[in-house]
Amino acid sequence: MVYFIGAGPGDVDLITVKGRKLLQEADVVVYAGSLVSTEHLNFCKEDVEFYDSSSMNLDEITQVIYNAYKKGKKVVRLHTGDPTIYGAILEQMRELDKLNIPYEVVPGVSSFTASCARIKREFTVPDVTQTVILTRISGRTYVPEEEDLEGLAAHKSSMAIFLSVHDIDRVVEKLKRGYKDENVPCAVVYKATWQDEKVIIGTLKDIAEKVKEKNIKKTAQILVGYFLDDCGTYSKLYDKKFSHEFRDAL
Ligand code: SAH
Questions:
Q1: pLDDT tens for residues 78-113?
Q2: CA-CA distance, 216 to 135, in Å (whole number)?
Q3: What residue stretches are annotated with the Tetrapyrrole methylase domain (predicted)?
Q4: How far, in Å, from the CA of 107 to the mean position of ligand 1?
């Protein structure tokens, strides 16, 4: 069996209990070395085989997994955050399908929720927004025109923008046009939950400058939206005058 596992955003204890257990039992681990902390490997067996996928192509990764599987070994493919978000796991699963190799996907804590936790906010604030958009700016990877940042920003939902901080000027430009407001709060979280984490708080007016001052060019979440303001609204869930399935109203 092959397990695609979400390693979490950085802090090694943010992997799931299931993920850690499988990692401890693995004979072969292929990990995304550019973003997965190598500290995870300390939990593996002594004779485990490691492969850093950052310098491997799809064929090489598939070959390693295939060879291990044929020998009856337990393989862990360790991805950063949650593997289903910008994890490029679909193509790997397709290759395994072709080879009739069974696999399971174990979810993880994505960097977008980890970043929101670090700044102690909630993406879905009552009376502000009930929607979270996960997206990225186009670059070498094409983003469909309908999903251009400007159009998405016009919804005024909470946004978590991946893979884009290197192009912060263009991001801000598009967001300003979409929100039609320069005072939209914005937070950039660099390496959320790592030792060298950095948090920058601002608005669309000044965030680009602040990001450049701190020389942040990668591994950051750009969180945008009015959810970042603490607007003091309350939910129905804990409202004493509101009843629901588990609680009666006063
Ligand atoms: N599957 C991952 C995302 C991989 S794409 C997840 O669920 O988080 C890589 C992008 O994720 C980076 O460019 C950055 O935008 C974001 N990212 C990954 N780890 C991060 C972290 N610890 N802090 C902030 N952003 C992070």
A1: 999 999 999 999 999 999 999 999 999 999 999 999
A2: 19
A3: 1-207
A4: 14
